Automatic annotation (TrEMBL), chain A:
GO terms for biological process: positive regulation of rRNA processing; positive regulation of transcription by RNA polymerase I; rRNA processing. Residues 335-365, 412-436, 630-655, 756-781 are annotated as: Disordered. It is found in: Nucleus, Nucleolus. Keywords: Nucleus, Repeat, Ribosome biogenesis, rRNA processing, Transcription, WD repeat. This is WD repeat-containing protein 75 second beta-propeller domain-containing protein. Residues 417-428, 642-653 have a biased composition (Low complexity). InterPro entries: Beta-prop_WDR75_2nd (IPR057644), Quinoprotein_ADH-like_sf (IPR011047), WD40/YVTN_repeat-like_dom_sf (IPR015943), WD40_rpt (IPR001680), WDR75 (IPR053826). It comes from the Eukaryota. GO terms for cellular component: small-subunit processome.
UniProtKB/TrEMBL annotation, chain B:
Pfam families: UTP15_C, WD40. This is U3 small nucleolar RNA-associated protein 15 C-terminal domain-containing protein. CDD domains: WD40. Keywords: Nucleus, Repeat, rRNA processing, WD repeat.
Length: 815, 522
């Protein structure tokens, strides 16, 4: 939040038990207050110069503490709560309040903590707000009601706090302040805020509707369909009609309540779709990188590489420029309204509340919201193939998959590369639906792969003996179609007319195949497009991509690698470009096959959650979940060593990302991603390869930048030191919006840079972004320049070329 | 930065792959020929001809008369030309619509005035019945073909025979003028041949062997292809390629009696020449000419003898052997272009009264005034029109949304709403809490559509949910019980059908395998 005394400074507080004061003009930390316990909430009283901190004790329970900012001391007493609840303070300073499950405490502000007034309620409170003059107090509860107290100042005791237990000193019924209850929300109230003059109350919740209550009449007014659950509302100090609305989908919107319009939206990388994970065998990593050439232009961003395409809630696909850390586009894969799902039978029906829902049958488990499970792009980025999953009418959480092929809405003509084109280009959808295939496989679709050169895609899926793969091919219709149009219909009329003019294309199934009724789990095309590899349970079947004839079957890897353990089904296949190797990942084993001998080249008895091949250098990156007990034994012999990773058992132990050389199974680079279960790896096309900075480096010791996308949608760019330019090197951006302090400064100046004040508190790795940051080559033991010469002499570039890189590494400070 | 619009997105109706040609745009177009006008004639309708000029009158030949119907009012009995002593054949309009020529059982070819019906010329040379008479493109000549195996070329002005074309060895039953050259004619006869004539030289150019008695001949609009009907098939000939047989279309069970080409039929999205053919098996089939596939088929109650389609594709007339004429009108006719559009009347101007203060409209005048180009336009906010089920979905009234969808009575709408409800998790509230009157339409819908393969998966799941919810109250209402019984019967019937189909497939499988093994080279 903004420093009340200085517009250029802002306070942040975080779970690492510190409060920091930043100057966001200079982008640097000014001072730091260290509290012993993680801080959940903080408010500042401007006149008194005190701050109330709501801290969550590590051993359980919460405290509201008072910190005097002038003297830099904490007050002697603290208010004890069961959980650290949010705080509210009246801007004029009379009162402060917090909530603690079923209790709401209001107290007078002062140099010490006063005796609070307890306002109990039958439902748990979820949020609260105090009007600026302190005359109005609003609190939302879990049933969606908003409780309003007016003129409660006289009822608040004036005494200082005496004993530890605050709630005991309840006042008699006669002294209780008058209460008004308004109810619109169907879900728990997410956030509340009063307008500056106290005539309006804004509330929001999981419905994605901003409700504006006129407090004179208690009549609601709505701004619906904001696209995601609302988690915070902050008024703008400059304009009383403007509010910042914080959404759970990592988006901040500037809302003008006078016109009831959204004026600006700032989006980050959206969170992963909630709901059930895809069925067993599906890697679930639907994230894909757009092909560098045409992709960036298609979604309206500047040229260059690194456009990440990730699925988010409500069957949307978000295109995100990881290089610039900028949201680019959202494509709605299935045209639906964003609705908050109904609760169970007890929770009523939807936000509208249909009457008489008591006769409803006992609903099964909450159906998963629709989401895109797989996405693939053609080599030139002109065609996108998606598989989206949505719940079925079946009673047991069954789902139905739908395969869709999309044409790029634009030609290959590059858009303007400047950032301002984003708004203009957002009017036209970047992709137009071409063909829709319902239920391409029985039950679910496990894999989707696109041919690197031809317009050919393959899907694999189905359960049991019905498991098969299908090859889909793009066909060009004659210019005058015979009228027997398929199920497809492109939405845009202009695009449809254009396609008609040039002879419309459509997709159809060319052939199907299966192998011994084994479940097919993954599919991949070789880089030249001649071989199709399909994983059948623990084996890999190789097919001729053109004729769909079975070429070879590679044996299951587990039998070769470790005698026992059972052969788990493969979940991912990757050809390593430039080498005759095929990598296969399964929950129990990472295997590399040599395609020339059709045999296992080497195998690692550790399950890999994600693998990626480096096209430029012929390397293989694998994400191996760290075992819970100890550092992995298999990597001990590795030349680069492994930093020991013993973590508290409460968190998942994290994932090791290791870059292998597929030729000899030697790990080249390593880094550790803590506290996640899965990551998604993909190699960025190496932009730095052409730049002069790395011109002299040895190719054998190099590696393309590796994008590590965590399950909470934080991503890291792991690169060799020096391959990215120094300022933007290895931007580690935690994109969770939860702890990003939202203050009026953003209303006035827009969002600060994500790598600055905003992201730091939530950075789970602690300040400095150590492990996931630049930590590519894990050569902590030896000087960094050693990597330069870690290559056979015949592969080393001439000394003249090496010298500059060597010097630059020597002269720059060690990270 | 961007902000996605917060408008309610309408429910997108699920579009399924067309089940048959009926569901394509083409099928929809041809099914729009509605409201048949049935006119009973005195004998089999042997020929139908449309005038090329507005209002596209049609001349039908039945028994001893040629009847001219007004193209704008085909229901009204038209002018009858009954100056025939015996059966009349092949009543044909001249291209300007003023004269009509017809052959007859007595061999005389007559030319009539289409308005006054008076006989203008009589050509008497044929010894046997003259089954075919056609106007030349120059409007001054008539070609006639007769059962005396000759084809004759008459000059209307002088009333004399110009040419006698010999070559057919059996009855001549069909003739057509080439649209490419006015001097080229094609005739077909019962000697299984189609002959091309040049009336300048008076000799046969080509002889094409159809393989069966030829009943009708037609040229394609460009003139480079011709089609002949005879036997139970059609033959498409490439005339430019020296009379090569391009395609043989065996889509009929019985003799194909008539074939017509319409240059601009079909839906607007794919308007192109279409071929229509009628057969004694009572079918009229429409072919598209790219791949010669049947795009539409209509069944008529009796053998089809003749058919015609008006140049603006508004009327489709079919004459049958049981002496009925059926004229169907398309409800969205096209505007004719080119030469056919010449006779089109000017659109009538509405009479507008002089506005005075005695008229209320005087006080609201100017409200529909168009803005000038220089005026600043304020765009009116468009109100999105929502269907009832969309309105209910928008208000989260799931049960009402399902009721509204059921009231639309379109299974696609119901399926889309059910899928949307399932995706929103609102299927339970939508299905639950119903009383007997509101449960009945749902059960009836299930009964009607649960066996259609495209809805089976969805509706079976819905049915399971429904039965789970309402099993305790079965027996409370007789109507609901009856509906549930009907559903059970329908399912039992379907299961029986599936079982017998499975048996049939099992019986066929060895046969197919054996034939496949035999056909494969060892």
């Amino acid at each position: 939040m903004l420093d009340p005394n200085n517009d250029d400074q802002a306070y942040t507080w975080s779970l690492d038990a510190t409060v920091r004061l930043w100057s966001y003009r200079a982008g640097e930390e000014l001072s730091r207050i260290v509290v012993r316990e993680p801080i959940k909430y903080m408010v500042i009283h401007k006149d008194l110069g005190v701050a109330y901190l709501s801290v969550q004790l590590r051993e359980g329970g919460g405290r509201v503490m008072l910190y005097n900012m002038k003297t830099g001391k904490f007050s002697g007493t603290a208010m004890k709560t069961r959980v650290a609840g949010p705080l509210a303070i009246a801007a004029a300073g009379g009162l402060a309040a917090t909530i603690d499950r079923h209790s709401l405490f209001v107290w007078r502000t002062g140099a010490d903590i006063h005796q609070p007034l307890n306002l109990p309620h039958t439902k748990p409170y979820t949020c609260l707000a105090l009007s600026s003059d302190g005359s109005l107090l609003a609190a939302g509860d879990a049933s969606g009601r908003v409780l309003l107290w007016r003129g409660l100042e006289p009822a608040v005791p004036a005494a200082l706090r005496r004993e530890e237990h605050s709630g005991k000193a309840a006042l008699g019924p006669g002294a209780r302040p008058p209460l008004t209850t308004v109810h619109w929300h169907a879900h728990p109230v997410g956030c509340l805020a009063f307008s500056d003059d106290g005539t309006y109350l804004l509330s929001g919740g999981a419905e994605g509707v901003l409700v504006l209550w006129a407090l004179e009449t208690n009549r609601p007014n709505f701004l619906p369909r904001l696209g995601g659950p609302l988690v915070g509302i902050a008024p703008s100090p400059a304009d009383p009609a403007r509010f910042l609305v914080r959404q759970a989908d990592n988006c901040v919107r500037l809302v003008n309540v006078a016109t009831m319009k959204v004026e600006t939206s700032v989006m980050g990388l959206r969170p992963a779709p909630a709901g059930l994970l895809p069925p067993a065998g599906v890697a679930g990593g639907a994230a894909a990188l757009l092909p560098a050439a045409a992709g960036a232009a298609a979604v309206g961003g500047g040229g260059g590489s690194g456009v990440l395409c990730v699925p988010c809630e409500n069957s949307q696909l978000q295109f995100y420029d990881v290089a610039r850390d900028r949201h680019m586009q959202i494509v709605q894969v299935s045209p639906r309204n964003q609705v908050s799902l109904t609760d169970g039978p007890a929770g009523g029906v939807g936000a509208g509340g249909a009457p008489g829902s008591s006769g409803a049958p006992a609903a099964a488990a909450q159906p998963p919201p629709p989401f895109v499970s797989l996405v693939a792009f053609s080599g030139d980025g002109s065609v996108m193939a998606t598989v989206d999953v949505r719940p079925d009418a079946g009673p047991y959480g069954s789902t139905e998959a739908c395969l869709k092929f999309w044409d790029s809405g634009r030609g290959a003509g590059p858009e303007g590369a400047s950032a301002s084109t984003s708004s203009s280009s957002s009017t036209a959808p970047p992709f137009a639906l071409n063909t829709r295939v319902d239920e391409p496989h029985r039950d679910y679709v496990a894999a989707l792969a696109y041919h690197p050169t031809r317009h050919l895609a393959v899907t694999a899926g189905g359960t049991g003996a019905d498991s098969e793969f299908k090859v889909w091919v793009q066909e060009r219709r004659p210019a005058a179609p015979g009228g027997s149009g398929g199920a497809a219909a492109g939405p845009g009329s202009a695009a449809a007319a254009r396609r008609r003019a040039e002879g419309a294309t459509h997709w159809r199934c060319l052939s199907t195949g299966g192998y011994k009724g084994l479940p097919l789990g993954a599919a991949a095309f070789s880089p030249d497009g001649s071989v199709l590899a399909v994983a059948a349970a623990a084996r890999v079947t190789l097919w001729d991509a053109a004729s769909n004839a079975l070429a070879a079957v590679l044996p299951p890897a587990a039998a070769v690698a470790v005698g026992g353990g059972g052969a788990a089904a493969l979940t991912q296949l990757t050809f390593v470009p430039g080498t005759p190797y095929l990598a296969a990942a399964s929950p129990s084993c990472l295997t590399v096959y040599n395609l020339l001998t059709a045999a296992v080249h080497w195998a690692l008895p550790y399950g890999a959650v994600s693998i990626s091949a480096d096209a430029a250098y012929g390397l293989l990156a694998a994400a191996l979940p760290a075992p819970r007990s100890a550092p992995t034994a298999g990597e001990d012999g590795a030349a680069n060593g492994t930093p020991s990773t013993t973590k508290p058992s409460s968190q998942p132990p994290g994932v090791h990302v290791v870059v292998f050389d597929p030729r000899d199974a030697s790990p080249r680079f390593h880094c550790h991603v803590p506290a996640v279960r899965t990551v998604h790896l993909s190699h960025l096309p190496d932009a730095g390869r052409t730049s002069a900075a790395v011109g002299g480096e040895a190719a054998a010791a190099s590696c393309s930048p590796l994008l590590i996308l965590r399950e909470d949608r934080a991503y890291s760019l792991a690169a060799l030191p020096g391959t990215l330019d120094a300022s933007g090197a290895a931007a580690d951006v935690a994109t969770l919006s939860k702890a990003q302090p939202l203050g009026a400064l953003e209303a006035a100046f827009g969002r600060t840079s994500a790598s600055g004040a905003g992201a730091a508190p939530m950075d789970l790795d602690g300040p400095g972004a150590g492990p996931t940051g630049p930590a590519a080559a894990g050569d902590r033991g030896k000087p960094r320049w050693a990597a330069l010469f870690d290559a056979p002499s015949h592969a080393l570039p001439p000394p003249a070329a090496l010298a500059s890189a060597f010097l630059s590494l020597l002269t720059t400070a060690d990270a | 930065m961007e902000y996605e619009p917060a408008e309610y997105q309408k429910l997108q109706l699920r579009s399924y792959a067309p089940r048959s040609i009926r569901e394509t745009a083409e099928g929809k177009y041809w099914r729009r020929f509605k409201a048949p006008v049935i006119a009973k004639q005195f004998g089999a309708v042997s020929h139908i001809d449309f005038c090329q000029q507005y209002p596209y009158n049609l001349a039908i030949t039945a028994s001893t008369r040629v009847i001219i119907y007004n193209g704008l009012a085909p229901a009204v009995v038209g002018r009858t030309i009954s100056r025939f002593k015996d059966i009349a054949y092949s009543g044909c309009f001249r291209s300007d619509g003023r004269l009509v020529c017809a052959g007859g059982q007595d061999g005389i070819v007559q030319v009539f005035d289409a308005n006054s019906r008076s006989v203008l010329r009589q050509f008497k040379a044929h010894k046997r019945p003259t089954r075919v008479a056609r106007w030349g493109a120059d409007r001054l000549h008539v070609l006639s073909g007769s059962d005396d195996v000759t084809v004759r070329w008459w000059d209307v002005t002088s009333g004399s025979q110009v040419l006698r074309l010999d070559g057919h060895s059996d009855y001549v039953r069909a003739a057509a003028a080439s649209p490419a050259s006015p001097d080229t004619w094609a005739t077909g006869g019962y000697d299984h041949t189609v002959r091309l004539w040049d009336v300048r030289t008076g000799g046969a150019v080509t002889c094409l062997d159809h393989g069966a008695p030829v009943e009708d001949v037609a040229f394609f609009p460009a003139g480079s292809l011709a089609v002949s009907a005879g036997g139970n098939y059609l033959c498409v000939w490439d005339l430019v390629g020296g009379g090569r047989l391009l395609k043989r279309l065996s889509n009929f069970q019985k003799t194909v009696t008539c074939v017509r080409l319409s240059p601009l039929a079909g839906p607007d999205s794919a308007a192109a020449p279409r071929m229509l053919a009628g057969s004694l098996d009572g079918h009229v089939k429409v072919f598209e000419l790219d791949s010669f596939r049947v795009t539409h088929a209509t069944k008529y109650p009796s053998p089809v003898m003749s058919l015609g389609i008006s140049p603006d594709c508004r009327l489709l007339a079919v004459g049958m052997a049981d002496s009925t004429l059926s004229v169907r009108k398309h409800d969205r006719p096209k505007q004719p272009q080119g030469a056919a559009a010449q006779g089109l009347p000017e659109p009538k101007r509405k009479w507008q009264p002089r506005l005075t203060a005695a008229n209320y409209r005087y006080y609201i005048r100017g409200q529909s005034t168009k803005a000038a180009a220089t005026d600043f336009r304020v765009r009116r906010q468009r109100q999105a029109k929502l269907r009832p089920y969309d309105k209910m979905l928008r208000q989260f009234r799931y049960r009402d949304a399902l009721d509204a969808a059921l009231a639309v009575r379109q299974p696609e709408v119901v399926a889309s709403v059910l899928e949307e409800l399932a995706a929103r998790g609102g299927l339970g509230p939508a299905l639950g809490g119903r009383d007997a009157p509101s449960l009945l339409p749902l059960v009836k819908h299930l009964t009607k559509h649960v066996t259609e393969p495209r809805y089976t998966r969805l509706l079976a799941a819905v049915g399971h949910r429904l039965l789970d919810a309402y099993a305790p109250v079965v027996g409370a209402c007789a109507e609901v019980d009856a509906a549930l019984g009907a559903l059970a019967d329908r399912l039992a019937e379907e299961l029986k059908l599936q079982a017998s189909l499975t048996q049939l497939a099992g019986a066929l499988e060895p046969l197919l395998a054996a034939s496949l093994a035999a056909s494969l080279p060892a």
